[in-house]
Amino acid sequence: MAKWALKHTPDQQQEEVTCAHATQQAQRAGKAMAQAEALCRTRGARLTPIRRKVLEALYATHKPMGAYDLAEILGPRGRRLAPITVYRALDFLIEQGFVHRLASQNAYIASPNEHEERESVTFLICENCGGVDEATSPALSGALTELLAAQGFQPKGKVLEITGRCSHCQE
What we know:
By secondary structure, the protein is α+β, with helices and mostly antiparallel strands. It contains six helices and seven strands; from the N terminus they run ββααααββββαβα.
């Protein structure tokens, strides 16, 4: 499990604290991988070894990762995997809804949540611990749909990225 911070106890000793985002990601990784495999079988899509490795690498961390970081981690014996291979795997994983790209960070995160095509997705990105929470809201989706209709705008996707401090880092 990932550790990220030092917490000061009342007597001013420092104690290592496990990031809540890392704990949540570790808890859902196994089930999410099994779900991804089942969905691929149902859809007739292939979760190839490289695609599986990329998805596993994203589930192994609670922070967004860039394609070059993934290429470095997944390369054999210290050699970097070709970035185009990682980008192709990411494209497939995004298409299947298993991964999201965070445009503000040019990085990717694994997503265990299935979303409707027209649903708005909000990513809450913590500037302190780097964790990302994924949220949806029917009220926000409705308001955004109304706003877009009033402007005559047809979105390709409805993704909102909000940066700040997560509830765990505020404690």
